[in-house]
Write a structure and sequence with these properties.
Blueprint lengths: L1 E9 L4 E12 L2 E13 L9 E6 L5 E6 L1 H12 L5 H93 L1
């Protein structure tokens, strides 16, 4: 893991110690190490006060050391030469937080609207089913009415035939009485 460190004299051992100031968490993300930690090394060629980038192994042993000058200058040029200040980052962080809140609110609104839509759809489906059942009942009733109407028509026809027969019989009866 890559670390930014400050070279300090280590009078106990006669070498130098590397005061770890920050560690790289991802390509563009560093974290300050609090409290600072120090790693002793027997490398004597480093000057006190020099900033270095060190690569540490999983066992916290120094794998490589390089001066941090180029990295610091690149970082300044990349992030600080365009007017990017800590207050700019704070404003951006605040704006990002506001966007996050807005998106959360919109997401909640969409979830609520989706739930309302599904409830309406369920009510419409239930109403459609009720209407279909009512239609089927009305169709059955209409069929029954047609059957009753046909029966009534037949009964009326029979009644008319009986009336006609009765009228003829009355006529015949009157004719016989007249004779």
């Amino acid at each position: 893991m890559l670390h930014l460190a400050l070279v300090e004299k280590n009078e106990d051992v006669g070498g130098v110690k590397l005061q770890l100031l920050a560690c790289q968490q991802s390509d563009h993300c560093w974290a300050v190490i609090n409290p600072e930690r120090a790693i002793s090394t027997d490398i004597n060629s480093l000057q006190e006060g020099l900033l270095v980038l060190i690569e540490l192994s999983d066992g916290q042993e120094v794998k490589s050391i390089a001066p941090a000058k180029d990295w610091v200058l690149t970082t300044i040029q990349k992030y600080l030469s365009h007017g990017i200040t800590p207050s700019f980052f704070q404003e951006e962080a605040a704006r990002t937080e506001e966007w996050r809140r807005d998106l959360t609110s919109q997401s909640q609104d969409l979830t609520r609207q989706r739930a309302e839509f599904e409830a309406r759809r369920d009510r419409i489906t239930a109403t459609e089913q009720e209407l279909e059942q009512q239609k089927q009942r009305l169709d059955r009733m209409a069929e029954q009415l047609k059957e009753k109407e046909a029966e009534l028509k037949q009964q009326r026809q029979r009644l008319e035939e009986w009336e006609e027969n009765l009228r003829k019989k009355e006529e015949n009866f009157r004719k016989k009485e007249e004779l």
